[in-house]
């Protein structure tokens, strides 16, 4: 039993280091992910304007639930908003949806 436990611990440690996505780090990563993957179209603070994106602080966006925003991020919005399903984990997408909401609260 002891042997098994330490193997499980080691495996999760390795997976964490290799994929570089630890669950605990994901919330903090939302801002970094947004900067790296979303800001070029949505603006550094989600202010929008580029490629016809809307301001994330607007009522149109703020009135949507986290789940609705997560679905848009996951599926994309043709023709310009890319789909992130398969590129980001569900947890990352969920964190990004929550992050989008915080961008409207200043
Ligand atoms: C290539 C440019 C581009 C990139 C990169 C991009 N988006 Fe978008 N996004 C758009 C466009 C264009 C729309 C559609 C705007 C509209 O129809 O109002 C959109 C729509 C959205 C919406 C829905 C807003 C609404 O109008 O309901 C959300 C949420 C969103 N993007 C989040 C993200 C996140 C999070 C990322 C990064 C993981 C991202 N986007 C990356 C261009 C982009």
Layout of helices and strands, plus pairs?
Blueprint: H1 2-19, H2 23-42, H3 59-62, H4 66-75, H5 90-102
The chain binds heme C.
Number-wise, the strands total 0
User: Which small compounds were modeled alongside the protein?
Assistant: heme C
Count of all domains: 1
- β-strand percent reads under 5%
Characterization of this structure:
The chain is mostly helical and 106 residues long. It has one domain: Cytochrome Bc1 Complex, Chain D, domain 2, CATH 1.10.760.10. 61% of the residues lie in helices and 0% in strands. The chain contains five helices and no strands. Helix 2 (23-42) crosses helix 5 and helix 4 packs across helix 5. The protein is globular, with a radius of gyration of 17 Å. The structure holds heme C. Heme C binds at residues 37-38, 40-42, 51-54, 61, 69, 72-73, 77, 80-82, 84, 96, 100.
Compact description:
By secondary structure, the protein is mainly alpha-helical. It has helices at residues 2-19, 23-42, 59-62, 66-75, 90-102. The protein has 5 helices and no strands.
């Amino acid at each position: 039993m002891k042997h098994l436990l330490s193997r499980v611990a080691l495996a999760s440690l390795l997976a964490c280091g290799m994929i570089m996505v630890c669950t605990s780090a994901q919330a903090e990563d939302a801002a970094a992910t947004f900067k790296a993957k979303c800001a070029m179209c949505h603006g550094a603070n989600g202010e929008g304007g580029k490629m016809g994106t809307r301001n994330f602080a607007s009522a149109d966006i703020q009135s949507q639930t986290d789940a609705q925003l997560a679905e848009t991020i996951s599926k994309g919005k043709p023709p310009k908003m890319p789909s992130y399903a398969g590129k980001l984990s569900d947890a990352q997408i969920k964190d990004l949806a929550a992050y989008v909401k915080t961008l409207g609260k200043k």
